[in-house]
């Protein structure tokens, strides 16, 4: 394979509709490239310049491996985007529709975390994710005019029971140790910050405010990444149906789809969320990935709330257009993505207990997504042992959106021969040892 380059001399350009004459002058041979020198002449502007059409012999510095990524959610798209920016050629495959699984169903909360001071490695990864989200949002906007809905709105953490208050004290201790800024709000400050829109009963025992919490609009993030991948020269194929992995020795050499598409691959990265385990079963690899259903409800209110509200595992996430997301549940329901009347009624009751104005409104939509859970709560990220060209990134559970950019950077660094050794050791699927053998 050869890559073509054209080098033009001159500062004046040709006009629309111009006729260009191309004359071969002489063969050229420079270093590791071969080609032909041309003269270019414009009839309209009498502009004349020269170019060399060169075939460049590929070298290790110019040709990086072609990477196939399976999975079109936040994890897979982020990885494809990061690899393309590092000079890899990338093809992304999706069994159904891009970004319509857990990534679309989530809330897009970027919880407080510090990449440099976090005590837990996963919190460090989350902190890196938050930092990269800010950088990626700015880059996507500046480079391509794409808006991911990034909003540093801040977050309110409340407790309305003694148990929740104790847990929140522990959260405050962790934030303090990690140098995250926060402060305790008095009842008057809480009322003022939310304009008196929050319920006064049941009484809020503890309220903590942090400026460190942000959000993205996950559908916007997915669409923006997909557009950026295409503009960076990547290939996206969706609606492929079931995918089959074909092997030669200890390498995956080909992927075939139920729709009839097939393609060879040099490196393969599995980022298919809850379906990753099923793909690996084809190779007699037992990587436990369990689907955890999370249900959401959506309200439309007039004036948006000013910040995210968190109470225990549930939350309200306002959007600038007046939408208000209510989430979420954690259910073991297999691959069933349907919503249930009981869980939806509990979500609605939770929202109305915090924001009384919702009593006069009904949810405009509800949905559920399947989050991929690992057996120990840590994502699987790294190379699959005993396979030469197989990598995985899945098991992020509720943190997939926040961890997506950081996971992409970490895996891209590993593919390039580097990466954070501590994080890679912690997250490697090799931690399962012999249990990986199906």
Radius of gyration: 26 Å
Strand portion: 25-35%
Q: Could you name the ranges where pLDDT drops below 50 across 5 or more consecutive residues?
A: 1-60
CA-based shape: globular
CATH fourth-tier homologous superfamily of the largest domain: FAD/NAD(P)-binding domain
N- to C-terminal separation? 39 Å
Q: What's the β-strand tally? A: 23
Can you offer a commentary on this structure?
27% of the residues lie in helices and 29% in strands. The protein contains 10 helices and 23 strands. The N terminus is likely disordered. Helix 1 runs parallel beside helix 9 and helix 3 crosses helix 9. The chain has an 8-stranded mixed sheet, with helices on both faces. A hairpin with a 2-residue loop joins strand 18 and strand 19. It has 3 domains: 54 residues, no CATH class; 208 residues, FAD/NAD(P)-binding domain; 143 residues, D-Amino Acid Oxidase, Chain A, domain 2 (2-Layer Sandwich), CATH 3.30.9.10. With 438 residues, the protein is of the alpha+beta class. The protein is globular.
Keywords:
alpha+beta; FAD/NAD(P)-binding domain; disordered N terminus; six-stranded mixed sheet; 10 helices; 3 domains; 438 residues; D-Amino Acid Oxidase, Chain A, domain 2; single chain
Concise structural overview:
This protein has helices at about 75-85, 100-105, 120-145, 160-175, 185-195, 220-230, 275-280, 340-355, 400-415, 420-425; strands at about 5-10, 20-30, 35-40, 50-55, 65-70, 90-95, 110, 155-160, 185, 205-210, 215, 235, 245-250, 250-255, 260-265, 265-270, 290-300, 310, 315-320, 325, 365-375, 380-385, 390-395.
């Amino acid at each position: 394979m050869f890559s073509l380059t054209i080098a033009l001399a001159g500062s004046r350009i040709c006009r629309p509709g111009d006729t260009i004459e191309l004359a071969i002058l002489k063969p050229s041979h420079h270093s590791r490239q071969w080609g032909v020198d041309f003269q270019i002449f414009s009839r309209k502007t009498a502009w004349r310049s020269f170019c060399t059409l060169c075939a460049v012999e590929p070298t290790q510095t110019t040709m990086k491996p072609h990477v196939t990524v399976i999975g079109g959610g936040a994890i897979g798209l982020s990885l494809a985007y990061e690899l393309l920016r590092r000079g890899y050629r990338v093809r992304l495959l999706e069994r159904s529709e891009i970004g319509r699984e857990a990534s679309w169903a989530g809330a897009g909360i970027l919880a407080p975390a510090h990449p440099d001071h976090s005590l837990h490695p996963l919190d460090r990864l989350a902190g890196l994710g938050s930092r990269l989200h800010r950088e990626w949002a700015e880059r996507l906007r500046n480079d391509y005019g794409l808006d991911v809905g990034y909003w540093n709105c801040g977050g309110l953490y409340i407790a309305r029971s003694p148990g929740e208050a104790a847990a929140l004290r522990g959260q405050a201790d962790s934030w303090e140790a990690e140098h995250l800024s926060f402060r305790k709000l008095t009842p008057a400050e809480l009322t003022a910050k939310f304009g008196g829109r929050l319920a006064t009963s049941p009484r809020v025992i503890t309220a903590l405010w942090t400026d460190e919490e942000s959000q993205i609009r996950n559908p916007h993030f997915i669409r923006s990444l997909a557009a950026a991948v295409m503009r960076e020269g990547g290939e996206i194929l969706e609606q492929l149906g079931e995918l089959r992995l074909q092997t030669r020795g200890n390498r995956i050499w080909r992927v075939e789809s139920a729709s009839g598409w097939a393609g060879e691959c040099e490196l393969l990265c599995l980022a298919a969320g809850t379906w990753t385990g099923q793909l690996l079963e084809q190779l007699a690899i037992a990587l436990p990935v369990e689907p955890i259903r999370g249900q959401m409800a959506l309200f439309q209110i007039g004036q948006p709330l000013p910040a995210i509200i968190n109470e225990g595992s549930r939350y309200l996430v306002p959007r600038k257009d007046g939408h208000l997301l209510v989430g979420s549940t954690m259910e073991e329901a297999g691959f069933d993505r349907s919503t249930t009347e009981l869980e939806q009624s509990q979500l609605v009751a939770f929202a109305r207990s915090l924001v009384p104005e919702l009593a006069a409104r009904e949810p405009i939509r509800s949905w559920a997504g399947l989050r991929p859970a690992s057996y120990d709560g840590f994502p699987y990220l790294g190379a699959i042992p005993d396979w030469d060209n197989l990598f995985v990134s899945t098991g992020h559970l509720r943190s997939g959106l926040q961890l997506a950019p950081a996971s992409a950077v970490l895996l891209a660094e590993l593919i390039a021969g580097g990466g954070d050794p501590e994080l890679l050791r912690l997250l490697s699927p090799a931690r399962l040892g012999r249990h990986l053998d199906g």
